[in-house]
Every structure is written in structure tokens, then in C-alpha cells.
Write a structure and sequence with these properties.
The chain is an alpha/beta fold and about 400 residues long. It has 15 helices and 15 strands. The protein folds into three domains: about 170 residues, 2-Layer Sandwich (Aconitase, domain 3); about 80 residues, no CATH class; about 110 residues, Aconitase, domain 3 (2-Layer Sandwich), CATH 3.30.499. α4 links the parallel β3 and β4. The longest helix is centred in the first third of the chain and has 17 residues. The chain is globular. The chain binds FE3-S4 cluster. The site of FE3-S4 cluster has 16 residues, from β11 and α14.
Length: about 400
């Protein structure tokens, strides 16, 4: 890979040990994937925040770094609400390690917004055509597909390296040739709300790491695109998709003539195969809820009381922007949890079954948390959380 003189100097250690180590990571990645050069990034979103995932070894690795990020950089969700962790049943020991992890990131100049929806709280982190180094798979999908920016799905160390150097190797989704659609998927059904999570759950399994181009009858809203991309990133490993007439157009035409057709039947099967019966908890906000989603939940909970645990996960800044909605939701007994989510928090592991409205949580809860998952619409999730008897 071509390196400028300044990049060579950084690699040789002239700018310090941390910069050298970070440049080594970027150069190794670039060499593996055949990148020709490094490109500047506008922003970085760093995974590897939940202490559940990184453990003591990860914490020590971050603590050992010495430097300051050179581009706006924010964090993925942590393993707990950083303020209300006791209410989640998190142990003192875990909380202490989690707070130390966040502190280690703060010391590097990283903004402590722990969210998978950075685009919902900051407009300036990603604009069309920007190169980014984002980690969390739903955020990557949204950035590539809805915002029209360009990012690979970075691991924690490579994202951190991009944050400290301000660059990433130019390969994968940074290049036009990797942004060409691989499958055309026609959906002959009217979809709304959680149907998009169900569609993503089905489509991700089919296209795996491909780039689907959807021809839809309905016109998805931004939160619905968020749910679609998140589900495909989890049931497959889709990092980029297109919706005809809605998202940006592909830079290159469809790779093959292969066309898949999906209809109401395939969507309904997702609900039917994942009933909510027996769920002890209901969790919404995967990806983190937008203000519009909080408004809907608040309306659905009006004058109701929860009969089982109900978590609503969101970014702290989103919750802080609308304390009225948080109050309205929590008047029902539900909890609005910030900085964390049902998948990355160990708090989920004390439940045997969780009801969700997210195709991503549906994919990840069994494997990553050992928790069975049911899938329903937002309305039915709220109904299940507020009704007596089985979910
Ligand atoms: Fe976000 Fe956690 Fe879901 S990181 S996309 S809420 S699994």
C-alpha cells in the first residue's frame, strides 16, 4: 500500500508508540484487503465498549494507548446504563469495570455517547460521499445505505486506529466496485413498522454478505430503513442495500439477473415462528429508538401500567432531548435505558425469553445472550408488556 512521507514517519515510530501501533493496524488491514492507500475519514464509531464483550484484556489494551483522536469519534452501546445500572440488576464489579472502560476511551478524547444510532443525534458525523470508519453493523448499514456515506464494518481496534490516525485503508465499501448490487429482491406486500425488521431477517439469510436492491410496494420511513438494515446485518452480514426510489442509486448496475420474490407469507412466517408466549420481558430500541419511536411508545403506553419488565433503549442525547416523553413512558413503569441495549448488556442474561420488535435482536439474543426471543409489532409488544397473563 502506498504511504505518504508523513504516514511512513508515523509507521516508523517518529510520532510515538501509540501512533505507530495504530498505523501498523491500518497498514496490515490495507495489505490484507489490497488497499492502494489510506483515505481521511470524517468520523469514527467505535465498538468494543461493553465490558461483557471486551473483558479485562480489552480494557488493558485501551488503557495502554496514549494519544488523542483527531476526528470526531463516539462509542457503541456499553453493557449498562451508565447512570442507572443498579436498576438493571448489574453487579458492582461489572459496573466498576464498565465505568473504567468508558473512562479509558474518554481519556483518548472520544465523546462518551454510547449509541448505535450516532446519525440520530449528530448530523455532522456523516454526509453523502463521506468516508467513515464505523463499527456497529446497523450503523454501518444506515451510513452506507441511507446516508450515502462509505464505511466498512470496522472492528474495535481498527476503528480506534482510524480515530487516532484520522484515516482508514481504501478498500471494500469505500470503492464503487464493492457497492454494486448483487441481488434484486421484489417484495409484493404492503409493509409497515416491524414488517421491515421481518423482511430484513428473511433477506439477510438469503443474500448473506451481498448487496441487495429492493423493489418495494411500500415506501419505508427512516426508522423502517434503520430496522431493515439492522436485521440484514445480523441475520446475514449485509453492510449496504438499496431501495429503488428511496435510497441513493447504486454507482454501478446490478451484478446478476437473479431476482428473488418475497411476499406477505414470508413476512408472516417470521412472526409465527417466533411467538411472544412465555416472554418475561419486552425490550424495544434495537437499533436505539429515535424521538419519533419514543413518541409512538409514549402514546401506546398512555394510561397503562406495565405488568412485566419493559425496556426502551435509546441514546442518552435522544432521551435528554425529550424528557417529557421519558416521563410519559416511565409513568407506566417501563424504563428508558440509555447508553446500552438488550444485546450488549449482561442484564438480559437473567431472563429466559424476551419479546422484541427488532429483526436484529431476534437474530442475536439466542446466540449472544442465551435468551430466547419472540418477535411482534411495536403495538403488540406494548400490549404484551401491559396485559395480565401470558405475553
Ligand atoms: Fe444497537 Fe444493540 Fe441493536 S447495539 S442495533 S441496540 S444490538
Amino acid at each position: 500500500m502506498y504511504l505518504s512521507q508523513e504516514e511512513e514517519r508515523t509507521l516508523s515510530g517518529e510520532c510515538g508508540k501509540t501512533s505507530r501501533r495504530m498505523m501498523e493496524i491500518l497498514v496490515a488491514l490495507g495489505d490484507i484487503y489490497g488497499a492502494e492507500r489510506l483515505i481521511p475519514v470524517r468520523s469514527v464509531q467505535i465498538a468494543g465498549v461493553s465490558f461483557k464483550n471486551i473483558g479485562d484484556a480489552g480494557l488493558e489494551w485501551i488503557r495502554d494507548l496514549n494519544g488523542q483522536v483527531v476526528v470526531p469519534s463516539i462509542l457503541n452501546p456499553a453493557g449498562m446504563d451508565l447512570c442507572r445500572w443498579q436498576e438493571m440488576g448489574i453487579s458492582e464489579e461489572f459496573a466498576s469495570k464498565q465505568l473504567q472502560t468508558v473512562e479509558a476511551y474518554r481519556r483518548l478524547g472520544i465523546t462518551i455517547d454510547c449509541t448505535c444510532t450516532p446519525y440520530q443525534i449528530y448530523d455532522e458525523l456523516a454526509r453523502p460521499g463521506d468516508h467513515l470508519a464505523w463499527s456497529e453493523s446497523s450503523a454501518v448499514s444506515y451510513a452506507n445505505s441511507v446516508i450515502g456515506a462509505r464505511t466498512n464494518r470496522e472492528g474495535g481496534p481498527s476503528a480506534l486506529a482510524a480515530a487516532l490516525i484520522g484515516k482508514t485503508p481504501a478498500y471494500g465499501y469505500h470503492l464503487d466496485e464493492c457497492r454494486r448490487p448483487t441481488h434484486l429482491i421484489k417484495v409484493d406486500a404492503d409493509l409497515a413498522g416491524s414488517d421491515y425488521g421481518a423482511l430484513g431477517f428473511v433477506a439477510g439469510r438469503i443474500v448473506k454478505d451481498g448487496v441487495p436492491l429492493f423493489r418495494l410496494r411500500s415506501r419505508p420511513l427512516r426508522d423502517e430503513l434503520k430496522a431493515l438494515g439492522a436485521a440484514m446485518a445480523a441475520s446475514g452480514s449485509v453492510a449496504l442495500y438499496y431501495v429503488e426510489g428511496v435510497t441513493f442509486s447504486p454507482p454501478l448496475p446490478l451484478e446478476s439477473e437473479e431476482t428473488l420474490s418475497l411476499g406477505r407469507e414470508e413476512i408472516e412466517e417470521v412472526y409465527e415462528h417466533h411467538p411472544g408466549s412465555g416472554a418475561e420481558i419486552v425490550a424495544l430500541g434495537c437499533p436505539h429508538c429515535s424521538v419519533q419511536e419514543l413518541e409512538r411508545v409514549a402514546d401506546l403506553l398512555e394510561e397503562k401500567k406495565v405488568t412485566k419488565e419493559l425496556w426502551i433503549c435509546t441514546a442518552r442525547k435522544t432521551a435528554e432531548a425529550r424528557p417529557d416523553l421519558v416521563r410519559k413512558i416511565e409513568a407506566s413503569g417501563a424504563r428508558v435505558l440509555c447508553d446500552t441495549c438488550m444485546v450488549v448488556s449482561p442484564a438480559s442474561e437473567r431472563f429466559s425469553k424476551m419479546l422484541v420488535n427488532s429483526g436484529k435482536a431476534l437474530s442475536y439474543l439466542p446466540g449472544l445472550c442465551g435468551v430466547k426471543a419472540g418477535f411482534s409489532s411495536t403495538k403488540d409488544c406494548i400490549r404484551a408488556a401491559t396485559e395480565e397473563g401470558p405475553a
